[in-house]
Amino acid sequence: MPHSIVIFGASGDLTQRKLIPALYQLHRKGRLPDDTRVVGFSRTKFTHDEWRASLTESTQKFAGDNFDAESWGEFAQKIFYHPGDIGQAEDFAELDKMLVELEGDGESERVYYLSTAPRFYGPAAEMLGKSGMADESNGPRRVVIEKPFGTDGETASKLNAVVHSHFAEHQVYRIDHYLGKETVQNLMVLRFANSIFEPIWNRNYINHVQITVAEEVDIGSRAGYYETAGIIRDMFQNHILQLMMITAMEAPVKYAADPVRDEKVKVLQAVRPMTPEMLTADTFRGQYDGYLQEKDVAPDSQTATFAAMKLWIDNWRWQGVPFYLRSGKAMSCRTTQIVIRFRRPPHMLFENTSRNCEANQLVIQVQPAEGIQMHFQTKVPDQGMRFRQTDLDFRYDREFRGVMPEAYERLLLDALEGDASLFARADEVEAAWSICDPILQHWQNENQPPVYKYERGFWGPMESTEWMRETGREWFDTCPVLH
Ligand SMILES: NC(=O)C1=CN([C@@H]2O[C@H](COP(=O)(O)OP(=O)(O)OC[C@H]3O[C@@H](n4cnc5c(N)ncnc54)[C@H](OP(=O)(O)O)[C@@H]3O)[C@@H](O)[C@H]2O)C=CC1
Ligand SMILES: O=C1O[C@H](COP(=O)(O)O)[C@@H](O)[C@H](O)[C@H]1O
């Protein structure tokens, strides 16, 4: 059956940097279904050849060593362009006509990828619906919606309502590119394809969990977006809560979209609602030095570029186990890691050395040093019963050299194949907002909590380190070693 991927926002940054390079890699690997075409839609008046030429240049740049002229030449033949405005019904009618001509009579599968500014997600879904392009009587019709999905629970719920008035939920693919990362999927494999972790993956053995998404980059030229988004909307509502859900979820009955998402949603539903006292004591915000001098940032901006928080998951498995989440821009290094900190041994035999006895720790390195390390104590030879911490160290780059795909490859292929397991469901995004909204509202009350400053290149504000220490715990402030 013919397949079409229609990208709304064809002339934009995401299309050039991620979407087209990912589709091209799928073509190179022979993974695109036969008879697939990519059709771009935006207002810029490209011809087919002009858009192809512009993408040749950008893909060469972003695909790097994974670009070769011959396979690109083949792929470019599959690329088409239709100039149009999301606000114009006739542009959709013409687009549909062009798609039917390209696909031929009969059934086809289509993926509509909304990669435009977020304010167009609703109108684009509406136009697709009203023009009959969401109708599945001639084959599957799916819509992929980029982040951010709303700016709070209310707007997310309104967007869901608009989308649902034209597309059934099984047609809707809300993308979070973290779910396309190999190491995030590997977390599910680690937990559910091994039997040794499940018995200890709970309150009886785990002291606490830390999830850190640290970025070395600052906001760059994105102040226009970042000033209103801030770190909670940019990173917590989506990526970090996704990492928490996968760390904490129960095993789904099978690996399929609804069973997986049912279990993830249950985690969010179990997150303890924050009282005003908890919001003050357990959430923490910071701003890197120099943020106020960034272009287009208000001189008195309170926008958080760093946040840390403690969440409790009130269910059988996680009762009493705090989840510490943090993320920031302009931090020490780029690293995304999930640290499972186990309890200390209940009784210490080796009295003289007990103060050196670190608790066991499982470190899941999501990026950039993809892998997993287990930290445990080992006896130092010939030194009585002295011991020290050593590692079991699995690294993707040693085991599977050079085969890590870009997150968008997997997600685009899943959307083409109709597998929504790695996409967020309507109730999932709304439940995620219900955790973030009270924090955002609390932070709108002036100085609740204060915006702590931090130097670029640090692990956030010093106060965040102190805050953790007061709980008797330490952040895992370790930059990964890259080979
Ligand atoms: N860039 C990134 O790395 C990431 C982006 N995202 C999300 O993806 C989406 C796209 O981001 P990005 O590519 O950076 O944005 P850009 O601003 O670079 O692109 C926006 C696109 O929308 C098109 N557009 C704007 N208005 C209309 C209209 N009325 N009708 C038709 N097309 C229109 C523009 O083309 P034209 O002017 O020619 O019409 C352009 O192609 C955003 O929602 C963003 O939040 C998410 C994660 C990462
Ligand atoms: O969605 C976003 O993610 C990036 C971080 O993505 P990564 O894959 O590089 O970890 C972040 O920089 C950006 O602010 C945010 O919008």
Automatic annotation (TrEMBL):
<comment type="similarity">
    <text>Belongs to the glucose-6-phosphate dehydrogenase family.</text>
</comment>
<protein>
    <recommendedName>
        <fullName>Glucose-6-phosphate 1-dehydrogenase</fullName>
        <ecNumber>1.1.1.49</ecNumber>
    </recommendedName>
</protein>
<feature type="domain" description="Glucose-6-phosphate dehydrogenase C-terminal">
    <location>
        <begin position="188"/>
        <end position="475"/>
    </location>
</feature>
<keyword id="KW-0560">Oxidoreductase</keyword>
<dbReference type="GO" id="GO:0006006">
    <property type="term" value="P:glucose metabolic process"/>
</dbReference>
<dbReference type="GO" id="GO:0004345">
    <property type="term" value="F:glucose-6-phosphate dehydrogenase activity"/>
</dbReference>
<dbReference type="InterPro" id="IPR019796">
    <property type="entry name" value="G6P_DH_AS"/>
</dbReference>
<feature type="binding site">
    <location>
        <position position="329"/>
    </location>
    <ligand>
        <name>substrate</name>
    </ligand>
</feature>
<feature type="binding site">
    <location>
        <position position="215"/>
    </location>
    <ligand>
        <name>substrate</name>
    </ligand>
</feature>
<feature type="binding site">
    <location>
        <begin position="85"/>
        <end position="86"/>
    </location>
    <ligand>
        <name>NADP(+)</name>
    </ligand>
</feature>
<dbReference type="InterPro" id="IPR022675">
    <property type="entry name" value="G6P_DH_C"/>
</dbReference>
<dbReference type="GO" id="GO:0050661">
    <property type="term" value="F:NADP binding"/>
</dbReference>
<feature type="binding site">
    <location>
        <position position="177"/>
    </location>
    <ligand>
        <name>substrate</name>
    </ligand>
</feature>
<feature type="active site" description="Proton acceptor">
    <location>
        <position position="239"/>
    </location>
</feature>
<feature type="binding site">
    <location>
        <position position="234"/>
    </location>
    <ligand>
        <name>substrate</name>
    </ligand>
</feature>
<dbReference type="GO" id="GO:0009051">
    <property type="term" value="P:pentose-phosphate shunt, oxidative branch"/>
</dbReference>
<feature type="binding site">
    <location>
        <position position="43"/>
    </location>
    <ligand>
        <name>NADP(+)</name>
    </ligand>
</feature>
<comment type="pathway">
    <text>Carbohydrate degradation; pentose phosphate pathway; D-ribulose 5-phosphate from D-glucose 6-phosphate (oxidative stage): step 1/3.</text>
</comment>
<dbReference type="InterPro" id="IPR001282">
    <property type="entry name" value="G6P_DH"/>
</dbReference>
<feature type="binding site">
    <location>
        <position position="147"/>
    </location>
    <ligand>
        <name>NADP(+)</name>
    </ligand>
</feature>
<feature type="domain" description="Glucose-6-phosphate dehydrogenase NAD-binding">
    <location>
        <begin position="6"/>
        <end position="186"/>
    </location>
</feature>
<dbReference type="InterPro" id="IPR022674">
    <property type="entry name" value="G6P_DH_NAD-bd"/>
</dbReference>
<keyword id="KW-0119">Carbohydrate metabolism</keyword>
<keyword id="KW-0313">Glucose metabolism</keyword>
<keyword id="KW-0521">NADP</keyword>
<feature type="binding site">
    <location>
        <position position="181"/>
    </location>
    <ligand>
        <name>substrate</name>
    </ligand>
</feature>
<comment type="function">
    <text>Catalyzes the oxidation of glucose 6-phosphate to 6-phosphogluconolactone.</text>
</comment>
<dbReference type="GO" id="GO:0005829">
    <property type="term" value="C:cytosol"/>
</dbReference>
<dbReference type="InterPro" id="IPR036291">
    <property type="entry name" value="NAD(P)-bd_dom_sf"/>
</dbReference>
<dbReference type="Pfam" id="PF02781">
    <property type="entry name" value="G6PD_C"/>
</dbReference>
<dbReference type="Pfam" id="PF00479">
    <property type="entry name" value="G6PD_N"/>
</dbReference>
